[in-house]
Design brief:
cell membrane; 4 strands; 2 domains; Permease_MalE; 394 residues; membrane
Length: 394
């Protein structure tokens, strides 16, 4: 928008001859400025230094601006004048404008907001650490709510039947389930046996070392049997499966999401939850209790070796004492947790996989979040089971 008249060639009469000028006069606490000439983008650079000198002046209460002699003005000229006005308004000087046309008022109002949006004293200070901490907590609470709703959606769709294709009489693919059991269950046996045996040996060694002060070495068997069968066996197995299989589920589903294969499944009439989530979830529910049993045997085997080496408790004596120390309730107290932990690991891994965006960075972030969240929730669930067992004296 420009004030002034243009001729047929597109140039303004007198634009090259009339440079912008400002006449200054001061009297009785009033600073008067009369503007004249052409105030456009091409010419305002000639007057910018003079305008900045005026902005630095002080010692008066009123600034009177006369715009009647301005021949032509665009937004650049209006910005220069409004910057002057804004500078003196901050000093508390009264501003008086006269001689401006209606279009000049429109230009000054249009650029006024931009001029006053300039920072006064650098960038805004961030909130203090307490506010930032509370904000982070609030965001995490909302993220937990969204994750819970997404988990219930996937779990409900899986239990409902996981329709793999519209019109099919059945929705369960046994081949996919057995394939996932082989990958998540059979493939995890070596690492589960190794880690469980080491943990069982460490528990027995530390127990023997401490109980030897009281002459109660035989109670190492009670310690290892109860701790492994009730708590550590299933917990260590779930943590290893969360790191091994949970991350794999998130990576597989996430990579399919990145390549839009999930959308392709929807297009051809398949339910992505039925195709991708259901076999993995069922495989985890079957494999984790079996792996827990194997882990219990491996941990007890490690405990037998450690007790034999540190407390001279023969394997036969260890097994005889173990039959007295534990019963079926001790065994089932750990095994009951396994299916619930498997559901949690599979559901969280699937949710994080479905949240993957279109970048490799997003895939890495959600794989990490899947493992961390799964381990965290599994430990919380184990604590809730411990409280529940104590309440019912199980």
């Amino acid at each position: 928008m420009t004030i002034g008249k243009r001729d047929a060639s597109g140039t303004t009469a007198g634009e090259a001859d009339h440079e912008p000028r400002v006449a200054i006069g001061e009297e009785d606490g009033i600073l008067g400025c009369a503007f004249s000439g052409v105030w456009t983008t091409r010419t305002v650079a000639l007057i910018d230094a003079d305008m900045r000198k005026i902005e630095k002046r002080s010692g008066f209460k009123t600034l009177a601006l006369d715009l009647s002699k301005i021949e032509k003005m665009d937004t650049a000229g209006a910005w220069l004048i409004d910057r002057l006005v804004s500078a003196f308004e901050k000093k508390g000087v009264k501003i008086s404008l006269q001689g401006q046309s209606e279009i000049a008022n429109i230009l000054l109002d249009a650029v006024g907001e931009a001029v006053r949006r300039e920072p006064e004293s650098g960038p805004a200070r961030p909130p203090n650490i307490i506010i930032r901490a509370l904000e982070a907590v609030g965001r995490r609470v909302y993220e937990m709510r969204d994750d819970f709703l997404a988990s219930m959606n996937i779990l409900g769709a899986t239990i409902r039947g996981a329709q793999m294709k519209l019109g099919r009489g059945h929705a369960v693919n046994p081949a996919a389930i057995f394939n996932q059991i082989d990958r998540m269950g059979v493939g995890a046996i070596p690492v589960v046996v190794l880690m469980s045996a080491i943990v069982g040996a460490i528990v027995a060694q530390q127990g023997a070392y401490q109980l030897s002060y009281f002459g109660a070495d035989i109670f190492v068997v009670d310690l290892v049997g109860v701790l492994i069968l009730r708590e550590l066996g299933v917990l260590m197995t779930a943590i290893m499966i969360a790191g091994r299989s949970g991350s794999a589920i998130t990576a597989e589903i996430g990579s399919m999401k990145m390549r839009e294969e999930v959308d392709a499944l929807k297009v051809i009439g398949l339910n992505p939850i039925g195709v991708l989530v259901f076999p993995r979830l069922v495989a985890l529910v079957i494999a984790l209790p079996c792996l827990t049993i194997i882990a219990n045997f491996a941990a007890l085997g490690g405990g037998i070796v450690a007790a034999w080496l540190y407390s001279d408790i023969a394997p036969a004596a260890f097994i005889d004492r173990l039959r007295v120390a534990i019963d079926l309730s001790t065994i089932f107290a750990g095994l009951i947790k396994a299916p619930f932990m498997a559901m949690i690991i599979g559901t969280i891994a699937s949710v994080e996989g479905m949240k993957v965006g279109g970048s490799a960075e997003s895939l890495g972030q959600h794989v990490t979040a899947s493992v961390v969240k799964s381990i965290f929730v599994v430990i919380i669930l184990d604590g809730l089971f411990a409280i529940f067992y104590a309440a019912i004296e199980f």
